[in-house]
Amino acid sequence: MPLIYLGLAAIAVDSFLWDLPRWPLLALLAVAFAIYLRLGTVRRPPVEVAVPVAGRWVASNSPVDRVPSHHLHAYGQTYAIDLVHEPADRRRPGLAWWPLARRPEDFPGFGQPILAPADATVVRARDTERDHWSRTSPPAMLYLVAEGMVRELAGPGRILGNHVVLDLGGGVHAALAHLRRGSVLVRPGDRVAAGQQLAACGNSGNTTEPHLHFQLMDHPSVLLAAGLPLRFARYQVGGADQAGVPHNLQPFTAPGCAAPSRRGTAGGSRGRRR
Questions:
Q1: pLDDT at 196
Q2: What pLDDT is stored for residue 48 in this prediction?
């Protein structure tokens, strides 16, 4: 997005102040859009990891139902999944006209432990972004769109909010985003084990309500990364053990510490883009 805005601004300034060749500016825009849309998707077997949460959750924006799961390949999120905590004994606030926004503490996911999906090394850790109120009303959703544009200008860190990036080995990295401010328990260079608590679920960055944004990618920087397909080693749906990725809006229960097998996982090849 910064490149896109830079290209548009350059064309606008050129129209009024200078008479420069347009083709370099148009080429800049073309490159910016290609990066933003991430033309080229990695094709490879899914990387198997443990579910990075425990308890009853709902899958949202699942790559099982749509790729790219968040409508864009940008920021390495081709196969990303959002995990929203929805315990059986507490109702989660939904979309409504009133109140316009809610405190993050009103949502059951706020403060829930976020766990390491595999044995890994911490590459990045950030936890200084504030946890903002929800965007769970139609006016607040419109505000989220405008807010997102500003966040993109400020860089990917403002989109992810508080986050941790892990190096799983074999060219595979995991990003866990929208964490609670001050909750990150690890620092770059730390070694973590599968199931170890990394932080707490928060509502920082470009988000509507407290949830965990989780994705695998082929580079530690979301600006340069392509998303990698993933599968969870074990979770339960209706009391039955499953492996893979839950469907969109499907409730599931995560055991909290199910280490993945190593077959076809992070040690595999990077795959190819098409």
A1: 97
A2: 97
Taking alpha carbons only, the member of 190, 200, 183, 197 closest to residue 166 is 190
SS3 letters across the chain: CHHHHHHHHHHHHHHHCCCCCHHHHHHHHHHHHHHHHCCCCEECCCEEECCCCEEEEEEECCCCCCCCCCCCCHHHCCCCEEEEECCCCCCCCCCCCCCCCCCHHHCCCCCCEEECCCCEEEEEEECCCCCCCCCCCHHHHHHHHHHHHHHHHHCHHHHHCEEEEEEEECCEEEEEEEECCCCCCCCCCCEECCCCEEEEECCCCCCCCCCEEEEEECCCCCCCCCEECEEEEEEEECCEEEEECCCCCCEEEEECCCCCCCCCCCCCCCCEEC
For residues 242 and 251, give the distance between their C-alpha atoms in angstroms, rounded to a whole number: 12
User: What confidence score (pLDDT) does residue 45 get?
Assistant: 92
How far apart (Å, rounded) are the C-alpha atoms in residues 103 and 135?
Answer: 10
pLDDT of residue 262: 37
Greater confidence, 265 or 77? 77
Q: What is the pLDDT of residues 25-46, one digit of tens each?
A: 778 778 777 766 655 677 789 9
Which tokens go with 264? 């076809």
Nearest in space to 158 (alpha carbons), one of 126, 199, 200: 126
Single-letter amino acid code for the residue at 29? L
Task: Using alpha carbons, select from 222, 223, 217, 221 the residue that is nearest to residue 271.
Answer: 217
Residues 86 and 160: their CA atoms lie apart, in Å, by 22
Nearest to 206 by CA among 245, 158, 238, 239: 158
Residues 218, 162: Cα–Cα separation, whole Å: 20
Residue 154 CB-density burial (10 A; 0-12 exposed, 13-18 middle, 19+ buried): exposed
